[in-house]
Write a structure and sequence with these properties.
This protein has about 750 residues and is of the alpha/beta class. It has 26 helices and 18 strands. The strands form 3 sheets. The chain has a 7-stranded mixed β-sheet with strand order 3-2-1-4-7-6-5, with helices on both faces. A 7-stranded parallel β-sheet has the order 14-13-12-15-16-17-18, with helices on both faces. Strands 8-11-10-9 form a 4-stranded mixed β-sheet, sandwiched between helices. The structure holds zinc ion (ZN).
Length: about 750
């Protein structure tokens, strides 16, 4: 393996490829200087090996005209706080009067007590807004002085895997000298801030030939007078580190070789399916988490290695990494060839306890008088020998990025251990970053959580009608959703349409981390237990478990021309409307039990369950059974899972149960006009209006009204309600439950 985790024989080509300049002068020539900075940033951010998601920053010092005086001024455009370089736009860049930022050195010098981590240093962060050029609301990052105090026009600060390997190597200073000569200068770890900016200013003054610096335990920063030159210098400096580490004579295999053999993919999935709901339940004790499983060869090689226990305990280094991965992952000492899943669970149980007490001890040992209170002490990365890594986060994209970061950390350790010995950041320094008041302020600025954040919802029947409309609604409320349908293509179409709207979340392209976004589309036949089980297994592997299940799928058996329902149609109505929801519930209950977290189930029934109608008795009878299924399951699943029903009256909008012929037949039945040349939509609309005027509210029954009710049932608003059926029918007195 090369340190960036590519097959050895592909190393040269692949290295050249990810570090190949993608700069196009024709494109750049059409851009203004700020657009060129954004262009450069997007190019650099496109590969996780160059910088991690949300990590690193770039800047340009650009001449402008002061809007008031008309005088020429120098403006520092620098990537602000938050956002990702890969997708950065102008809105991600702060713009500051450079001379005013430089003037802050005088303000800083007036503080009697200065230095890293002093109140004086943090006070400078509050000064940046006063130097804003052009009413730009973007918040400056704490890295701003790293860019301001380097005199060159363009500065890139990246977190490249290959360079962090040097930055975390025990003899990093010597390696830096050996690889770069005087081109790159070593600086010992220092928390990003004003002092580090001043240190870089000193380096540039003392070493006028230097093009960059390695920030110990952290990353790379380099500078140039041209923007293309700066971009290509960044690539070149990473390449030199990469090639050096790849060429390191490794007489011993990486990570001391294998301690256990990796398991095959079938066994791996079995282990994970059995383990994950339980594990998710444990780490979700205070707040629910969504999982990402990572089983790439490089990860499995690491977790199965001799050195994994030692290196896992050492922890991660780059501040960006450990803010997500926590100071260390949880490694479980398990031998898949010798021990079963029960043993794994027992070891994990003990491991989690130990992890939490270690974390509490770390907090107690390192806390300062004004430190924020201790945060959740569950691990966010769990390493299982032979199997891979499980990462947890508050959303799918969060856990996926955490997995990406630990992946990068594995690359870092591989490189550092090849060239020297890997060293993590000092624990007190790590603590001072993790519990930095500025970091706490950033967390406090996060938007409040939505009603279904952290929740996994399975929507069976998502290919059309209520089920399809429900997916967008759930995602908008924060849910992570599995869109399931008997018609797999329509399930995938629903999932893709929603994902295209909301995006797959941060950190997808270029990270190489496998796994889904906030929505997946899956095929399953809910009348077939094996198919349902396979579907739930896929969801478990994608997200770690399940919180809510909604069954919106239904079947309306069409009578023949004489108004009779064939036996097979009768059976099909019961299979889909009653047996299906039962099988789904029964299989999901295994997951709910293993998780031990409260959940809920909503089954869509129908007002027809209590309103007999000529010609639809197969449908009506099956829905009556579905109503009672709700009540039976509510009793059976209490107190863990609430079970409720939604009983819609005819929803025509987008329903697969109302094909054109059925709409025409109904219009004919009620003596309403039905010109066969009219569009299906217009015909449906007329029928819906007709139904509406028969209701107590006079309102047509829309998809949105169903979807809203279902989503509410899943939330805490209904935490005291189970076994209930709510009609969403515009008000039909004949359908009142008695
Ligand atoms: Zn950084």
């Amino acid at each position: 393996m090369t340190i960036t985790q590519l097959p050895k024989d592909a190393a040269r080509g692949a290295t050249d490829d990810y570090l190949r300049s993608r700069w196009d002068d024709d494109i750049a020539a059409r851009m203004d200087p700020v657009e060129r900075l954004i262009y450069r940033s997007n190019l650099l951010g496109a590969d996780a090996r160059i910088t991690n998601t949300g990590g690193g920053n770039t800047s340009s010092k650009i001449a402008a005209k002061d809007p008031i005086t008309g005088d020429p001024v120098r403006v520092l455009w620098v990537k602000g706080s938050g956002g990702d370089l890969r997708t950065a736009t102008r809105a991600n860049f702060a713009s500051l009067y450079l001379d005013q930022v430089l003037g802050l050195r005088d303000a800083y010098a007036r503080y009697p007590q200065r230095g890293a981590k002093t109140p004086a240093e943090d006070a400078m962060v509050d000064m940046y807004p006063y130097t804003t050029f052009g009413r730009n609301p973007t918040v400056s990052s704490i890295d701003t002085p790293l860019h301001a105090f380097v005199p060159n026009a363009h500065v890139d600060h990246m977190h490249p895997v290959a360079v962090i390997a040097l930055a975390t190597a025990e003899d990093g200073p010597r390696l830096t000298q050996e690889i770069y000569g005087g081109d790159v200068i070593w600086t010992a770890w220092q928390r990003p801030g004003f002092e580090l900016g001043l240190e870089l200013e000193r380096i540039v003054r003392d070493c006028p030939n230097a093009k960059g610096a390695i920030l110990g335990q952290h990353g790379l920063i380099n500078w140039a007078d041209g923007d293309r030159e700066c971009y290509e210098l960044t690539l070149d400096l990473i390449r030199r580190a990469h090639e050096f580490l790849d060429a390191c004579p490794n007489s011993a295999p990486d990570f001391g070789g294998a301690r256990v053999k990796p398991v095959d993919s079938a066994k791996r999935d079995r282990v994970l399916v059995e383990l994950l709901p339980w594990l998710r339940g444990k780490v979700s004790a205070e707040k629910r988490q969504i999982a990402t499983v990572e089983t790439r060869d490089e990860v499995v090689e690491f977790v199965s290695s001799v050195d994994a226990p030692r290196l896992a305990e050492v922890g991660t280094s780059c501040p960006d990494h450990f803010l997500r991965t926590k100071i260390k992952p949880l490694y479980v000492d398990w031998n898949p060839q010798r021990d079963g899943v029960d043993a794994l669970r027992a070891k994990l149980d003990a491991g989690l306890d130990k992890y939490r007490s270690d974390y509490a001890a770390y907090y107690a040992a390192c806390k300062r008088h004004d430190s924020p209170p201790i945060r959740l002490s569950w691990p966010s990365v769990i390493l299982i020998p032979g199997v891979g890594m499980v990462a947890f986060g508050k959303s799918k994209s969060e856990s996926r990025v955490t997995a990406e970061f630990y992946n990068a950390a594995i690359g870092v350790m591989r490189g550092a251990e090849r060239a020297s010995r890997y060293r993590a950041l000092d624990r007190q320094e790590a603590f001072d970053i993790e519990y930095w008041l500025l970091e706490e302020a950033k967390l406090k600025r996060m938007p409040p959580e939505r009603a279904l954040d952290r929740q996994v919802v399975v929507d069976v029947g998502a290919g059309s009608g209520i089920g399809r409309a429900l997916v967008s609604r759930l995602v908008a409320e924060g849910a992570t959703v599995a869109a399931v349908d008997r018609n797999g293509e329509s399930a995938i179409a629903t999932a893709s349409a929603v994902e295209a709207k909301v995006g797959a979340g941060i950190g997808v392209a270029g990270t190489g981390v496998s796994g889904a976004g906030p929505v997946i589309g899956l095929q399953a036949d809910m009348t077939d237990r094996d198919s349902v089980r396979a579907m739930l297994d896929s969801i478990t592997l994608a997200y770690g478990g399940v919180d809510h299940v909604v069954v919106t799928a239904g079947y309306y058996p069409n009578p023949n021309e004489q108004g009779e329902v064939a036996d097979a149609e009768w059976a099909k109505a019961f299979a889909i409307n009653v047996t299906g929801p039962y099988v789904v519930a029964d299989e999901a209950y295994r997951i709910w039990k293993a998780q031990g977290l409260n959940g809920s189930l909503v089954i869509t029934t129908s007002v027809n369950a209590v309103v007999p109608k000529a010609g639809s008795f197969a449908y009506d009878t099956s829905k009556a059974a579905a109503n009672h299924l709700v009540r039976e399951l509510a009793v059976a699943f209490a107190p863990l899972v609430r079970v409720n029903g939604i009983a819609p009256a005819t929803v025509l909008e987008g329903s697969s149960m109302f094909p054109r012929e059925r709409v025409l037949a109904s219009l004919a039945k009620y003596g309403l006009p039905h010109d066969t040349a009219e569009s299906t939509e217009a015909l449906r609309d007329r029928l819906a209006q007709f139904y509406a005027q028969r209701t107590l509210t006079g309102e047509p029954v829309t998809l949105e009204s169903q979807v809203q009710a279902i989503a509410l049932f899943l939330t805490d608003h209904f935490s005291k309600t189970t076994g209930a059926i709510i009609n969403i029918d515009g008000g039909l007195s004949a359908a009142f439950l008695r």
